[in-house]
Each structure stands twice: as structure tokens, then as C-alpha cells.
Write a structure and sequence with these properties.
Strand order of the largest sheet of chain A: 1-2-4-3
Strand content of chain A: 5-15%
Largest sheet of chain A: 4 strands, antiparallel
Radius of gyration of chain B: 20 Å
Number of strands of chain B: 10
Number of helices of chain B: 7
Mean pLDDT of chain A: 92
Helix content of chain B: 25-40%
Structural class of chain A: alpha+beta
Helix content of chain A: 40-55%
Low-confidence stretches of chain B: 106-114
Number of strands of chain A: 7
Oligomer: heterodimer
Largest interface: A-B, 37 and 33 residues
Strand content of chain B: 15-25%
């Protein structure tokens, strides 16, 4: 098991499971896990480009570890790569989820780009939602309808190109069924032993109801960088 | 005068642990230079086209390296730094000494291996050496900006480098007469620029300027073959020509608005 050679990722290791699937395993706190888990399930539900994920919990009550499928052949974001996105709406979708869950850590290392099929046409993947307000029910509720801080956000996002994709995902978030939202919250809180699931569900429901507005404001703050 | 070097390795697959040296960083008197490997294995060795593409991208990103202790932030998980080593005392030219580590002469004598670097990698290194890399973008594709090209130009493929200004667009291809694939390069560049030339919109106020810049002047300098299809062939070994070329890039680039690209 080798550490992932990315700065400040000492808690990340490459692992391979019995089925041969390759993962990046990350040690996380309960709040980090909640941020990852809720965000991932929302991404899957509205089809946002993120690697497949799972969690590992050796015994009931243990802190879960987060597993993110290894995406082969990737580089990180820089502003020059903005011109070679295969589909800017993929990036727009990631930013929409960031806005909704209050992710304040969309730095360049958390955007992966993969040649598809070559370096003039890159597919985008969003990783690492651990630093999202949705991981902390009380903090998420206090966030209200505000957008996450973008101090650490990557620069050079082609806002005009990504906006339609972001708003498309915002519209989908707006229409998520109440039962589906409840299932996402319940599953996440159950694994993380988080007691304030009602508070989280209520806050998440409110933000989904205002998803277009929140996503629009988030894109405006990213555009001002 | 002491110098140090360390290799930058490409890790195709973290699970197998294999490493391929991509380049070396050489530190001398506080400044860092990048020495790219003479050749990098192709897709069959690295495990696929995407990995080979990433290896080339990393080589280009390395042109931005200014630190001896860490890699540029955007390189991703496939690049790692090797240990630092001292260049032996008595070596007058540390860059040449490190470069020689990548070019085992005995192998070179008995094989016909071709450098697998893209011309664009050498081209961007030139722009960096002239301190105009911040104005130069990679891989121009028609239709990204108001470029004065007809819509069907999208079919013609990308140009290695470009500079976009408020009202001017420079499309630039590097020419390496000493490159093993020089004849094919010349043919490719001629076809590409001939196609772009034919796609210039006659209604546009100002179309893109097509420039071939020659990076060295080897014996096979057939660059005049490009003259009919480009607006300018720049011999960068000519001091005046180089200066005018760099000034032009700087003049155009400083008027550019990055938002035009989005």
C-alpha cells in the first residue's frame, strides 16, 4: 500500500480490494465522512462526474474510511487546461454540487482531468467533498442559503462555458424527491453515527428548493476570483 | 560552484510501482533548470494512450518548474520527485552532464530510436527561456474565440501554440530541423497551415497570423518549403529575427483578455 503522492495527502493510500478494484483510501473524521457521503450520493443521483466511491468500516462503531475509485491517467487543474475540456458542463455540475453542499475546498488538486482520448479533449472529475458544510449538520443549517467561501477555489474557471451545465444540475437538485433526500441523509448519518439527521435533512431540503439561486450566486463568486 | 540534480519520475501505475524518468531538475546558484529526457516510452510501454498523453502533459508542465524541492501544483499523482544528488565536483557544465545521463551513447550508436517528445514541448521551452510563456497558450483549436476562421476549420486539428490579443491572433508551430522526424514534421506543418490559410474568413477584419518558428539550424534546414503556406518563418538563431518575434508575442499578448478564451 503506497501513499498517494500528492502534497498534504498523508492520510491517503492506494489500496486494491479482493475483487481487483483499485481505490484511494482516505482516513476521515465523522464530519469529513458525512461531507463525502452526502455529496457523493447527490452526485450519483443527478449524474455529476465523480469517481465511484465506497466506505470501509471494519467493525460497527469504527470510524469509517472513505474509498474513492482510482481514476487512471490524470493531471490536476490549471487555468491553461480550461481550453481543452471535453465537456465544460461536467465541471459545471461539480461546481453546482459544491454550491449546494457548501464545499469550500475546490482547489486545483481536487479537479482531475483525464485525456479522452488525448490532451486536447479532457474529461473532468471532481474529488474530495470532505470540507463541505453538509458534513456538519449544525454548521450546514447555519449556512442558510449562503454560498461557500471561495478563497481556496481554483482560478481560471470558464464561467460562461460551465454555467449551463451547472444550472442544469441545479434544476435536477431542485426536483429531487423528498424520500430520496431523506434516504441519503439517513444512510450517511447512520454510518457516521451522526444524531442530527433531522436538522441536516431540513437544511438540505431548503437548499435544494433554492438550488438555482445558490448555484448562480456561487458561480458569481467564482467568476470574481 | 556546486550544483544538485534530481529526477522527475512518471509513475504509470501506482499499484505496480514502476517509474520512468521524465526529466531532471538541476539547481545551480539558486536557480532551477529543467532537462527533459531524450525519449519517453510510448503507449505500449506505459499502458495506454491516455498515460502517454499524461506523460507528455507533465513534460510540458515541467517547463514551469521553478522549485527544486517540489513539483508544480498541477502535475497530479503520476509525477514524483526522486532524491537530490550532488553533481560531481569539477563538472563545468552541470546541465550537459545531467543531459548525458539521459543519452547513453552506446545505445544511441546501435539503435535508431527517435525522440518521442512533441515538438511543442521544445517550443514551449523556448518561449519560457525568452520569458514570454505567460502569453503563450497550448493547442489552439478553431472556434474557441473569434478567430476569423471559417467554421469548417474545426476539422483541421490543433496548432501547437498561440497568442491571443485584443485584435490579433498568432498561431505558431515549432520547427526542429534536427528532429529525426523532420521531413514528416515539415509535411504536417505545411498541410496544417495550408488548411488554416484556406479557411481564413475573407469577411473578417483580421485573420490569424500563421508563424513557423525554427528552433535550431541543422543541415536539413528545408524551412523554405513552408514559406508558401505561412505568413512568417522565424529563424530563432538569428538575433534580430528572434527579438522581433518575441517583441511581437509580448505586444500581442499584453493586449489579450483571458475571458476571450472562455
Amino acid at each position: 500500500m503506497e501513499p498517494v503522492p500528492v502534497p498534504n495527502s498523508s492520510d491517503c493510500h492506494y489500496v486494491i480490494d479482493s475483487g481487483g478494484r483499485k481505490w484511494v483510501r482516505k482516513m476521515v473524521t465523522a464530519n469529513d465522512f458525512m461531507g463525502e457521503c452526502v455529496s457523493y450520493m447527490l452526485c450519483r443521483l443527478v449524474r455529476v462526474s465523480v469517481p465511484r466511491a465506497a466506505y470501509l468500516q471494519e467493525h460497527d462503531g469504527d470510524e469509517p474510511m472513505w474509498l474513492s475509485a482510482v481514476v487512471d491517467s490524470v493531471v490536476h487543474w490549471n487555468h491553461r487546461r480550461a481550453q481543452v475540456l471535453r465537456d465544460p458542463s461536467e465541471l459545471g455540475g461539480i461546481l453546482a454540487i459544491d454550491a449546494l453542499v457548501g464545499n469550500f475546498d475546490r482547489n486545483h488538486k481536487n479537479i482531475l482531468l483525464r485525456p479522452d482520448p488525448d490532451a486536447t479533449c479532457m474529461r473532468v472529475y471532481g474529488i474530495d467533498f470532505a470540507n463541505s458544510w453538509v458534513g456538519s449538520p449544525r454548521g450546514f443549517a447555519d449556512l442558510g442559503l449562503n454560498v461557500p467561501d471561495v478563497t481556496n477555489h481554483v482560478r481560471g474557471i470558464p464561467i460562461e462555458a460551465v454555467s449551463p451545465g451547472a444550472q442544469k444540475i441545479a434544476a435536477k437538485l431542485n426536483k429531487i424527491d423528498e424520500d430520496e433526500l431523506a434516504a441519503i441523509v439517513e444512510d450517511s448519518c447512520s454510518v457516521a453515527c451522526e444524531p442530527e439527521s433531522d436538522l441536516l435533512l431540513s437544511a438540505l431540503r431548503d437548499r435544494c428548493a433554492h438550488a438555482q439561486q445558490i448555484v448562480g450566486l456561487h458561480l458569481e463568486s467564482v467568476a470574481r476570483l | 560552484m556546486s550544483a544538485r540534480f534530481r529526477f522527475v519520475h512518471f509513475v504509470p501505475d501506482p499499484f505496480s510501482g514502476g517509474r520512468v524518468p521524465l526529466a531532471a531538475l538541476v539547481e545551480r546558484d539558486g536557480s532551477v533548470a529543467v532537462v527533459p529526457a531524450m525519449s519517453v516510452p510510448g503507449p505500449a510501454c506505459l499502458g495506454g494512450d491516455a498515460r502517454a498523453e499524461v506523460a507528455q502533459l507533465l513534460l510540458e508542465d515541467l517547463c514551469d518548474a521553478t522549485s527544486f524541492s517540489e513539483l508544480p501544483d498541477d502535475m497530479g499523482p503520476h509525477a514524483i520527485l526522486g532524491d537530490a544528488h550532488a553533481v560531481p565536483v569539477g563538472v563545468d557544465d552541470p546541465l550537459a552532464w545531467v543531459r548525458a545521463l539521459f543519452t547513453p551513447q552506446q545505445i544511441a550508436k546501435h539503435t535508431s530510436r527517435r525522440p518521442t517528445h512533441r515538438r511543442s514541448t521544445y517550443g514551449y521551452a523556448f518561449f519560457r527561456s525568452q520569458n514570454v510563456d505567460r502569453f503563450v497558450q497550448h493547442r489552439y483549436q478553431p472556434g474557441r474565440i473569434r478567430d476569423g476562421l471559417l467554421p469548417h476549420a474545426k476539422q483541421f486539428g490543433s496548432v501547437s501554440h498561440y497568442v491571443v490579443g485584443e485584435s490579433e491572433l498568432l498561431l505558431m508551430e515549432p520547427v526542429l530541423p534536427t528532429h529525426n522526424s523532420f521531413s514528416k514534421d515539415l509535411s504536417d506543418i505545411a498541410k496544417l497551415f495550408a488548411a488554416y490559410g484556406s479557411a481564413r474568413d475573407p469577411q473578417a477584419d483580421q485573420g490569424p497570423r500563421l508563424i513557423a518558428y525554427v528552433l535550431d539550424h541543422g543541415s536539413r534546414a528545408r524551412r523554405h518549403e513552408l514559406a508558401p503556406v505561412v505568413d512568417q518563418v522565424v529563424d530563432t538563431s538569428d538575433e534580430n529575427a528572434r527579438r522581433f518575434f518575441i517583441d511581437k508575442i509580448r505586444d500581442v499578448g499584453t493586449t489579450g483578455d483571458p475571458q476571450l478564451l472562455s
